[in-house]
Specification:
Pfam families: GerE, Response_reg. It comes from Streptomyces violaceorubidus. Keywords: DNA-binding, Phosphoprotein, Transcription, Transcription regulation. The chain is of the alpha/beta class and about 220 residues long. Helix content is about 55%, strand content about 15%. The chain has a five-stranded parallel sheet, with helices on both faces. α7 crosses α11 and α9 packs across α10. The termini are far apart.
């Protein structure tokens, strides 16, 4: 089945460019477009995308609030890929904290756009881990987020789960973590699932953001 993508951006040229790039791929299908975050929820319910590629800055409802509303309102929500002009922007970090799964620069090359959509859809690796680390260092709480600290302390991760979380933060895939720890891929998947469940995170990105916010993983 192709990856179903919904495009949300107030610039028609950006939407047209993304559509042209994505629809050239046999395994990706653009199933809808919207010009503002306010239209996301009804469209998601209508077309059931796997990934929403969403501009972070829009006039009525920006990508941060649209992400929060989508995750709060829609059962089994799609993955959210924030599309932004500036890589090291506080808006991007706030979108990730709100629940976005990754971000993509508007100036990205076609191959990078396709790779980002596929990676986000698969959910087995962190998109642009170095950039997420830098964002956390610049805009995070430096380990001072009490809510994140309470979440991690309450989670009571095992030593191996903590090790897996640190490797997730470095951007390693399940297969790469398995090779590093000399265990099977299914074992890693079980550890990742346990980490997400214990932290109350819906995906790797949210788990890693929580780890940075507490200081369990150093962003530097």
């Amino acid at each position: 089945m192709p990856v179903r993508v919904l495009l949300v951006d107030d610039e028609p040229l950006v939407r047209a460019g993304l559509r042209a790039v994505l629809e050239a791929q046999p395994d990706i299908e653009v199933v809808g477009e919207a010009a503002d975050g306010a239209a996301v929820i009804p469209l998601v319910r209508q077309v059931r995308p796997d990934v929403v590629a969403m501009d972070v800055r829009m006039p009525l409802l920006d990508g941060i609030e649209a992400t929060r509303a989508l995750l709060r309102t829609v059962a089994d929500p799609p993955k959210i890929l924030v599309v932004t002009t500036f890589e090291y922007d506080e808006y991007v970090y706030e979108a990730l904290r709100a629940g976005a799964d990754g971000f993509l620069l508007k100036r990205a090359r076609p191959a990078e756009i396709v790779h980002a959509v596929r990676l986000i859809a698969e959910g087995e690796s962190l998109l642009f881990p170095a950039s997420v680390r830098r964002l956390a260092a610049e805009y995070g709480d430096g380990g001072g987020n009490r809510a994140a600290r309470a979440e991690v302390e309450r989670a009571r991760l095992t030593e191996r789960e903590g090790e897996v979380l640190r490797l997730m933060a470095r951007g390693l895939s399940n297969a790469e973590i398995a090779a590093r720890l000399v265990v099977g891929t299914e074992t890693v998947k079980s550890h990742v699932s346990a980490v997400l469940a214990k932290l109350g995170a819906r995906d790797r990105t949210q788990a890693v953001i929580t780890a940075y916010e507490w200081g369990f993983v150093a962003p530097g």
